Description:
- It is a single chain.
- The chain is of the alpha+beta class.
- It is built from 13 helices and 29 strands.
- The chain has a 7-stranded antiparallel beta sheet.
- Helix 4 (342-349) crosses helix 6 and helix 6 runs parallel beside helix 9 (522-546).
- The two termini are 45 Å apart.
Amino acid sequence: MVKGANVGLSALSENVRAVVVGLGWSSATGEGDADVSVLLLDADGKVRSDADFCFYNNPVAGDGSVHLLGKTPTADGSEDRISFDLDAVPPEVDKVVVAASRYGGARFGELDDLRLTLADSTGDGLARFAVHDVEEVSALIFGELYRRAGEWKFRAVGQGYASGLAGLATDYGVDIDDDAETADAETAVVQAADGEAASSRTAGAERAGAERTGTGQVGAEPEESAPEGPGPDVEVPGGTSTAPSARVPAQSRDGHAVDRAATGPEPAKSGTAAAPADAPKSARRPRTAKKKVTLPRTAKKSLADNDTWRTARLFPGSALKSDRERETRATSVVLSVMAQVPEFGRRLTAAFGAPAGRMETFTEVTLPHGESPRRPDGVIRVERAGKLWTALVETKTNGNALKPDQVQAYMDIAARRGYEAVITLSNDVALEGSPLVDVRIDRRRKHKVALWHLSWAEVVHQAQMLIRHEGVGDAAHAWLLQELLHYLQHENSGCHGFQNMGAAWVPVRRGIDEETLCQGDARALEVIENWERLVRQVCLRLGGELGQKVLPVQRARRGADPGARRTELADHLCEQGRLNAEIRIEGTPGVLGITADLRTGKLRTSIEVPAEGAGYPLARAKRLVRRLSDAPADLHIETLVDGRGTGPRGTLERLRPEPADILPKDGAQITGFRLSLFKGMGAGRGSAETGFIRSVDDAVDRFHAQVVAHVDAPVV
């Protein structure tokens, strides 16, 4: 689509009761990011209340019709996805605006390949809009979903705000909280263990206003052409409005106040928004919208006489003996908790096109199929406004592979019965462009069925995020999720995620060691695919523990085919004998690098810390050494020198008494430091104590806890 064009959703697909919008971008450094927001507007082009403003601190809006799904890894890095249940959008809402904003002084002009994608409930792509010429704006409206003559339509917008999230929100009737005293009365976060509340403060900001940048709408229908302002009958900032207002904190993702004009808008010049006045910045936490229940990080003192007494569990795992028992128990446990804890069930199904409604789950359901009936492991059914969404579930545990004939049969059954999806759940991790199961789609059928995959690692991640970081509705729900998490992590459950590097692992290691592995060897490609699965699982596990976004960084050419990218990496593996990966942890100054050298049997974890700001080189070196006072003595430190790459290097043990040894002798400008730890690599292909997978997990955990946690800000 081009800027200003619009299209009816019903003309694109029959499955548009629910749609998924993806917002994506890339940057040369791989570090550019932005936050997604959605506004639900009434006939006056204003939000009705704070519930109509959906952003990182309020991820669900419109009675559950809009749900921010977070970032999903793609071939180009990652993509923010938003689920829309259009049948559930309140009738008073005429338009839904999809936007994103940058923070910390960053602008969208610094990002590449800005794009919006639109997919139906089956996952099929419907439209793509590439945004160009955004220049120096810090907030950007990508597109709009709006009602017209009883149907939903989509418009490609591509308009920006130089005043950031505050200016965008103000245009649509959102009030910026300007009373710091009332902000101190923020809702507490309830701790499920003892009922005590931990207060978190936030500070308000002055009301913002700024005019939008150019509003050209090339290709729009005449009767539906976009207005010059934010919507029909919307007054520009600085005027008065009788529309209901929502109060939200004027803060960016990093906890600082967003830029805003202190005394109202200035006239825009040359088609750009007026420059806002700088606002005072302080490390303030965004306001939470409602009370949430989380679990304490430290357990209460046990009343048991000794360690041999085992706590009674709702879902015991000790009696499981066969794969069939594991599959049956795991399916029933997960589906029952999904139905009882709405937040958890919604998080697992929203990305699959399921509406936000009443959920019921079933196990061991018998369905007719030819001469012999089929029994899928489970069924998920969601009801919203009298309409049903149904998915069949096929489960595997203990590393067992999905059977293509089973999945194919369930796809055929779902198509005949009018069901929307088939969901597979196993230890494996799906990769983009590399389906776990190839199924045949009968194009003659009018009804389409979507095939989706979940890893047990993803289920564990979502449970951890809710009970340890984001919170759920009440203490009973938190306890249920805790019991689920304990069961999934039990040694007998078989739900431990990706745990095997595959049959090609040993031959590839031997071929590299003997220098007999040639480029084009299919076994090297299999190792690359499993390495990518392992890295994605590491991101899920670490993100669940930290409560932060942890995503793999894939430095590939824009638009590169995932299969071609993996083939290129396989050739590099044959030539160099190394597996390389990078992961980005939200709030850290750089990316965490992982290198597995199959020639030497060593794992290297590293991070590059920029040296910013003024100061003598020796002072910078001393500050770095002081910050790493609790880091391992064998930590390697390399100085990064402008124009020459690396400079002096040494271990932390040697540099503690003599920090000057890390400085270039010729006085070259220091741009940063590379910190690295080395450890032995497991030889086995599995996750046993001596296996490769366990060694990677241990290396990442050790490096993050002992190094990254101490350098969570640039060295200045």
